[in-house]
Amino acid sequence: MKSNEKNQPKKSKKCECDGSTILYVGSLIAAIIAVILLVNNVRLYNANVAQYVAQGYPKDEVVRQLKAIQLMPGICEPIALYGGIALILYGIGMINEKVSRRLVPTTNVQAIDGVQKDIADAENVETSEKVETDTENAETSENVKADAGNAETSENVKADAENVETAAKVNETTDDIK
What we know:
Layout: H1 2-7, H2 19-54, H3 59-177
Helix pairs in contact: 2-3
């Protein structure tokens, strides 16, 4: 009994997040990485300026040289790369959310239309079955009428046959009398 319980796979819990939420989370992560890199680059710049000033270089000259070489790329890179990725993910998440909202009612209408179509098909089947039954009943009643007509005709034929027999007997009797 215990071996059966061990062999059964465990049910995995599925994430009930929609795609937009995942894109928003990805956007947030990219933005956080951009901010962390921005802070790191500014701290690195300050550390380099302090190191060069400690070596005896004039602070104004060090700041002017490192600003173009280290500070500007250190600020622009994280903002451009990771900030751009964050904005793109956020924009795609918004588009996905709007499209998802628009598609949900369409899907429900299609499902309702399918149900209505199935109901209409079922009604058509029932109607066609009734028509077939009515047609069979009509044919049967026509057959009964035809049989009744035939019965009348057969009665007429029997009567005619009796009349012929009677006429033949009358003729025989007449011939015997002569």
